[in-house]
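Please predict the structure of the following assembly.
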Amino acid sequence: METTYRSNIMICAGTGCVANGSLKVKDALETELIKRNLQKEVKIVLTGCNGFCAKGPVMVVYPEDIFYQLVKPEDVPHLVEEHFIKGRPVQKFLYTPPAQKDAIPVMNEIPFFKHQVLRALRNRSLIDAEKIEEYIARDGYMAAAKALTEMTPEQIVSEMKKSGLRGRGGAGFLTGLKWELCARVPGDIKYILCNGDEGDPGAFMDRSVMEADPHSVLEGMIIAAKAINAHYGYIYVRAEYPLAVHRLQLAIEQAKDRGLLGKDILGTGFDLDIEIYQGAGAFVCGEETALMASIEGKRGMPRAKPPFPAVKGLWMRPSVLNNVETFANVPPVILHGADWFASLGTEKSKGTKVFALSGALNNIGLVEVPMGIPLKTIIYDIGGGVKNNRKFKAVQMGGPSGGCIPASLIDTPVDYENINKTGAIMGSGGMVVMDETTCMPAMAKFFLEFTEDESCGKCVPCRVGNKTLLTILQRITSGEGREGDIELLLNLSQQIKDTSLCGLGQTSPNPVLTTIKYFRDEYEAHIKEHRCPARVCTPLVKFVVDKDKCKKCGQCFRACPTGALKWEKGQVAYIDPEKCTKCKSCIKACRFWSID
Amino acid sequence: MSNEAVAQQTATDNEVIGPEMYRKIDAIIEKYKDKPGSLIPVLQQAQDVCGYLPHIVQRYVAKGMKMSPSVVFGVATFYSFFTLVPRGKHVIRVCLGTACYVKRSEEILEKIKDELDLEVGEITRDKKYSLEAVRCLGACGLAPVVVIGQDTYGDVAATKVMDIIKKYE
């Protein structure tokens, strides 16, 4: 029998914490526990992403549920001494909310965690991702067993439809309906596919699910396979996620060993084999027909629909493709029922959604919240507001296919319908927060560089149109914008949206359209006044100190690496144009926007 | 590329790609040749063996997989994971994803380009470093991110990035 421990230390081994040294902390803890002869009382577990990436390396100690942050290997002896010998939480490593005095020791009382409802991430910080027993102990594979032994494919489809679960990859198509369409198509060979090609920059929720809870994806796929009668499945994972590939591979082997995958699953006579397919780096492969072409070993180029993949998909066979987070949501729906699932959310958007918060926020990380939660709650309560006391300007949702939501719409409830109304899209769940130091035309240019680069080139509107959009944006941000450029951008954007073949082209102008819609004045400042209000576009920055705004503090002087800045106590600063290399160190250092 | 440059590149490729590598590629092709749709894994593994996918290797794979070289070339140039030129001993990858962009990762990229005197996709003369720009590594919590070899560095400042790079000799 396994030893029972009095305490468990769950150390985050997600990508963020590992890069911050969590594995070294783990080694230090192991050494220290042995030194103190506590190795039989305290157990160390490496978990998947905890979500609070900004504070890494993070760890949670059970049973007390104490959350420790920013722990370094050299702090470990002190931590073990205080917590495990003297039995008191160590103040130094507890979380204190910005602008508050008192630390909050218990994880679920910290605002970042308090507003979250964990469904797709239900096993977060609770299990070792590499042990199937731990997944099973948390009701893992119960839903698959129920679906295989007690339910007909029709019942599964009907339960899924009733739950209202919609595709978490971005488009928001009803999952149950997708399955039903495929289930109705006759055919002996069908495929169940999982889209783990998380290509949106600024999104990392699928990575986290695959790394932290790979069995939840497999279980969702088993249930879907039974619903459509597929016996073969692929998980398409992008090449940039080696840890996800490793964990999924291990999970597949463990599930096979225990008769949960392969031939005659749980003695029910149902067969399902799942294979991992590693992508080779192409954003467009997130589009379903392109993804299928890629699995077939071809260039990942989309094709026209219909025929839809439910009728003719991979190898021209009926196929269902769902996103990682969608599959992770399936087991609880089957286990607890559609009504339970639909008890959270809004009229048309049920359940929860995982978001990856990043950018200019205090609390960066991964969060799961009920649909319909106001954007404000996510940004201020969970996200802890904007960093360095700067002003919230906009949030980019949906990556290069999405758009910016400005500060004026911060009360928008987050669900598919309301986000679409703003001109952005829900997308896969990336939320990049921007403060007033972000230039919107430059941001639009950044996204167009991305889509222009990633366009597969098959259809003209996307291949040529996006390039033209980019050219116009390049001239605006370099100070050569022309009268009428804004109208040209709007017109061309609409044409690209209307005539492109796949989702990439149909959505690529969204960042341009939304930034013009909400920040037209910035475009006009660039074109008419040759001025970049955010001081980002270097050719438009004059590098002159505004003597009315200068508070004579000398911060710019201290930041200047070339000696171009002249300043003396009580004097307005001056920039010597001969020596200035336009590196913008002074602009970043100035808190009063006094350098133009 | 001029004819001369092509001839020079081919000569270099022939020097780099030795019989031992061809033997390994043979084994990879043998493993996959009857499995439909396996060109991408074959190329991934061939690139692991050779470090890159020069034309001679692409032709060799095409022959082994009984495909037209144009199909292989089409796939090899479509996906960003494949490189047709050799990589440096240390590959420096600067993330230009949205979260890193908002945190000014472009300035980091510019700094490296200036200091090492190379463009994205190029390799330094001493073959020590090559530079790549990538679109989101999924470590947005650490933005801006630079990856050198297998090591991820978060919260990198443009002014400090060369100190990190110089640690890799």
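Chain A has a mean pLDDT of 94. Residues 376 and 515 of chain A are 20 Å apart (CA to CA).
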